[in-house]
Amino acid sequence: MAWNVHDIPDQSGRTAVVTGANSGIGYCTARELARKGARILLACRNELRGKEAVERLQSEVPSARVGYRHLDLGDLSTVRAFAKDYDDERLDLLINNAGVMALPYAKTADGFETQFGVNHLGHFALTGLLLPHLLATPGARVVSLSSWMHTAANVDLGDLNSERRYRRWSAYSRSKSANLLFVHELARRVEAAGAGLTAAAAHPGYASTNLQTESSKLEGHRARRRMWELANGVFAQSADAGALPALYAATAPGVLPDSYTGPRLLGMRGEPARSRRASWTLNDRTGELLWAASEQLTGVSYAGL
Questions:
Q1: What is the band of 207 on the pLDDT scale with cuts at 50, 70, 90?
Q2: How far is CA 150 from the centre of its chain?
Q3: pLDDT given at position 296
Q4: 2, 44, 221, 291: which has the fewest Cβ within 10 Å?
Q5: CA angle at residue 256 from 255 to 262, to 5 degrees?
Q6: What pLDDT shows up at residue 213?
Q7: Spans of all domains in the chain
């Protein structure tokens, strides 16, 4: 029988941080964890939408213990503030879900290309700053969201911020490869340190969320936005279905370090299953070099690993 939300083990007494949880896959992930008893912290950039998501979640799950905390992955000062203000000794689940896709060229507050800065560097910094809480919690997991589109491009270690040439879809694919390389290197470091943390990855396949339409909305491209809306309606699975791989990676017994979970049917839709990944996301040397560059760019080092 296909794995679904009814198979999520009891999460009572556990604490989860879900980035980008005000809508889409992040919201669905947070809601189902709350339904199973976890205390949830929605880490979102937009305060209004974040607080509205808290109210919506509480209306759907009256027993939910859920709160909002400001986090803008495109501004490392807010990442540091979030970690500094995190007031729970334990952290069982960190779901690195938030992301942007195929945006026009822009830079984050810290001067990084936006897709690389938000999708990879912001989560790299957040995980490192929350690491003491994760290491102090038996059975803790970090789940990072990648994409089937990572197979289109490896990271360019000589041009991480796409300064020589910017192609929005290539930059997106590279950021998603960076997510998988981060998980690979984190899992290696955890094993070497003998720590009890599991680092895993997941992707939603083709799920209908506002991620696809955000770029067109920013650029005022009504026709392109409508095209995405039509494609989502015909081909995409729901955000609820898209959240299942992340929920599986976060809660299913026996999830292996550095595993990659996605939809079973061609990696696009269906129940969670082991997913295909590009060979370059398992390259130890590339993982090491990206890690070193990420530490230098963010100023965050992983004490204890």
A1: confident
A2: 14
A3: 98
A4: 2
A5: 65
A6: 43
A7: 5-207+243-294
φ, ψ for residue 260, nearest 5 deg: -135, 115
Q: How far apart are CA 17 and CA 130, in angstroms?
A: 10
Beta carbons of 179 and 67 less than 8 angstroms apart? no
Token pair of 269 as six digits: 């839709």
pLDDT at 6 over 60: yes
| Residue of 123, 129, 255, 136 lying closest to 195 (CA atoms) | 136
Report the topology of domain 5-207+243-294: Rossmann fold (3.40.50)
Is position 172 annotated as part of the catalytic site?
yes
pTM for the whole structure? 0.92
Q: What per-residue confidence (pLDDT) applies to 206? A: 82
Q: Which of 27, 172, 206, 302 is catalytic?
A: 172
Give CA–CA dist 37/289, Å, rounded: 39
Name the residue with tokens 């500094």. 84
CA pair distance 172, 175, nearest whole angstrom: 5
Closest CA to 6 of 202, 198, 175, 247: 247
